[in-house]
Amino acid sequence: MKIDTSFFLSLAIIICASCGVSKTQTTPNVNNPDSANTPARPTEMYIAPEEVAAKTSLVNIPIRFKGSDIENLLNAKLNYVIYEDNNPDDDGLMMKATKNQNITLKLDGLNIDYVVPLKLWVWRKLLDNAWTGKRGIEAEGDITLNFRTTLNVYGDWTVDSRTELTNYSWQRNMAVKTGIGNIDVKYLADIIIGKTKNVITQGIDKQLKSQFQLFAPMNEAWKQMQNPISMTNTYGRWWIKLTPQNVTLTPFRNENDALVTNVFISTLVDVKTGDNQPTFRPNSFLPPFQYAYTTADSFNINLVTSIPLVEAERMAQNYCANQTFNAGGKKIRVSKIELFGQNEKMIVNTKFEGDFSGNLYLVGKPVFNPLTNSVELQDLDYDLQTKSFMIRTAKWLFDRTILKKIKEACVFKVDNNITTLKNTLNDQMRNYRFNNNVSINGFVNDIFINDIQLQQNEIKVFISSVGKLNVELSNLSNY
Fold first, then answer.
1. Nearest to 309, CA basis, from 270, 352, 346, 275
2. What angle do CA 157, 161, 166 make, to 5 degrees?
């Protein structure tokens, strides 16, 4: 079974291509020193990136092997003549077993049941040729053999296939066709069934083991998944890397005449920017095989996109720059807005001109509002140093209209990213074919924000997507 890894890579690429990734800036935007007419600037602090917990993504891929494809494979490999013995010198017998009709199968979990219809021909050497004048006699009949194969996968990813004859039934009893003399039909039938059984069970096991080899393709896929991929968007060049952590397969099961297994891959998704390939976490190694005892067909992918603070500043400034406020008979105007972080909080440095010229600092926590699909600042208010300064020098600045306007300015929409991401994923996963043998059908049910975290120069937005996916393998003989 060849595994096409491009699906795992394309899922991550589609998601990241729909979202903005900020370029790293070496220094924060600080251009306003403290002065007597300005409250003390809050300390700029950020949660270290390594302290941000990495969340794994779970890709669940149901893979279907059509029963008809397995039938076609076996009928192609076990063709007309199943067994033939043309040498009578060793035991005085010649025999031949040919397929009377195509092999059919029925799937039952880890078991595959086969019906093999055969036409048997037997020639037996006569002991007294001089008396009869003939060298031997021949007989023929029609029989149906029933086999069962049990599949097992071991920790080293090897697949064991064991096929046994379960029973047989005569469709046309063995009868003497030509010659003179008696022939022990049961004796001959037991011999030919025994020889035919070995040929068929070995043939079935050989073909199934060759088609269901897992270690080599899974190990190669595991390595290829971890190759960083370079892409470019409006923010520059960025890199994405998957580091899978675990993989499990469900036991094979029968669904609508298909052999189905679910592959669950848990992976970390890292996104970085830069003209040259950055350093990523080390590659992981393919872990031992494990069974996953679930049949859910949903998947979820977690990753981080970001709103650059320079872009957030631009949006906030466009909203309220040059806004004029009247309070206490005095007039002030917003001339500039700067954003920076203080751990999980965001500081809004608002510079005013007019009857008050200086900076006022507000503090709030970035949160996602699902009703508006936007990042907002929760509980936005003047920080303690600013409040103390205003009480001492300018109580009239406590006008709530000013606070309300700045809060409205600090709303950063992400609904376009979410809508684009969902539409792009659905377009890509609808009846998509990697090649003539592998097809995909799937859709995204929902995309939502898990968490918001403030980092230097950017607001990190942790996104999850949830959907369903189906991968179908066909034309097994082409693998």
1. 346
2. 155
Phi–psi pair at 15, nearest 5 degrees: -65, -50
3-class DSSP assignment, residue 357: coil
Angle of helix 67-77 relative to helix 185-211, nearest 10 degrees, comes to: 120
The mean pLDDT of 31-36, rounded to a whole number, is: 42
pTM attached to this predicted model: 0.54
Phi, psi of 476 (to 5 degrees): -60, -30
- For residue 404, which of 336, 338, 320 has the smallest C-alpha distance? 320
Residues 6+ apart with CB under 8 A from 175: 139, 140, 141, 185
Backbone angles phi, psi at 388, to 5 degrees: -60, -40
Q: How confident is the model at residue 476 (pLDDT cuts 50, 70, 90)?
A: very low
Helix, strand, coil percent content, the chain, rounded in steps of 5: 25, 45, 30
The token pair at 295 is 């049949």
What is d(CA 316, CA 413) in angstroms, rounded to the nearest whole number?
A: 11
Given a contact cutoff of 8 angstroms between Cβ atoms, the answer to whether 403 and 360 are in contact is: no
Q: Tokens for 125?
A: 């050497």
Residues 6+ apart with CB under 8 A from 169: 143, 144, 146
- Give the max Cα distance, the chain: 138
Distance, in Å, from the CA atom of 183 to the CA atom of 187, rounded to the nearest integer, reads 9
Element (H, E) at 359: strand 358-369
Higher local confidence (pLDDT), 66 or 376: 376
Helices (H), 18-64: none
| DSSP states of 211-277 | HS--HHHHHHHHHHHTS-EEEEETTEEEEEEEEEEEEEEPPPEESSSEEEEEEEEEEEEEEEE-SSP
Structure confidence at residue 305 (pLDDT): 66
